[in-house]
Each structure stands twice: as structure tokens, then as C-alpha cells.
Amino acid sequence: AEPSPMCITMNMGLVHRQMNNYEQARHLFNEALQKHGSTTDKTILYNSIGGLKFQQGNYYEALNNYLEALKLTTDQSLKAEINQKINLLNELLRR
Predict the structure, then answer these.
(1) Greatest CA separation found in the chain?
(2) Sign of the alpha-carbon torsion through 14, 16, 21, 26
(3) What is d(CA 16, CA 10) in angstroms, rounded to the nearest whole number?
(4) What's the burial of 11, exposed, middle or buried (CB within 10 Å: 0-12/13-18/19+)?
(5) CATH number for position 76
(6) How many CA atoms within 13 Å lie on the side-chain side of 50?
(7) Residue 35 has what DSSP assignment?
(8) What is the pLDDT of residue 2?
(9) How many domains does the chain have?
């Protein structure tokens, strides 16, 4: 199966995030949210946006995106990974 438009745009955003082009990554992630994709694509996208927001020090925004990803996923290992990130953010936000 071909990747969804959401997945393609998200992957371009991930490349920009790796290259530290955070503004372009943010733009592409927001664009990806407007496109059609599976629930799995949306979960990965919200998880990716959470990671970008975390890297930029926007902990509340990161937390909100991780919570969105958590709501969408049924994958137990991904749930565990996202919960670890949420717990870390809660620790950071308590300080």
C-alpha cells in the first residue's frame, strides 16, 4: 500500500526536525494534520509534534500532543513509550 498524504508530509517534517530546521518541521507537521491518514499515522504525527515541542522547551504543548497520541493508539508498546514521555514531562513541569 502507498503511504498516505499525511504520512508523506509527516516524514518530510521528521527529516527537517533531524536537520534542526524546527520551523519547517513545525510547518510540515501542521500541514500533515490537515491531510488524510490512518489513526496510526495520526498517532505517530502527534507523537512527533510532541517530540518537536519537547526539543524546543515547550513542555505544555509537548504534553498535550503526547496525550493526543495516547488517546489514539491501541499499540501497547507505543502506549508505554508515550507514557514514559508524559511522566518525564510531568516531572519537569513540577519543578
Answers:
(1) 46
(2) negative
(3) 10
(4) middle
(5) 1.25.40.10
(6) 22
(7) S
(8) 87
(9) 1
Residue 2 carries which DSSP code? P
Q: What is the pLDDT of residues 51-93, one digit of tens each?
A: 999 999 999 999 999 999 999 999 999 999 999 999 999 999 9
Q: Is 79 helix (H, G, I), strand (E, B) or coil?
A: helix
The boundaries of the domain holding residue 25 are 5-94
CA atoms 8, 14, 15, 16: torsion sign: positive
As a whole number, mean pLDDT of residues 32-57 equals: 93
Q: What is the pTM of this model?
A: 0.90
Contacts of 14 (CB under 8 A, 6+ apart): 25, 48
Q: Comparing C-alpha atoms, which of 40, 45, 52 is closest to residue 77?
A: 40
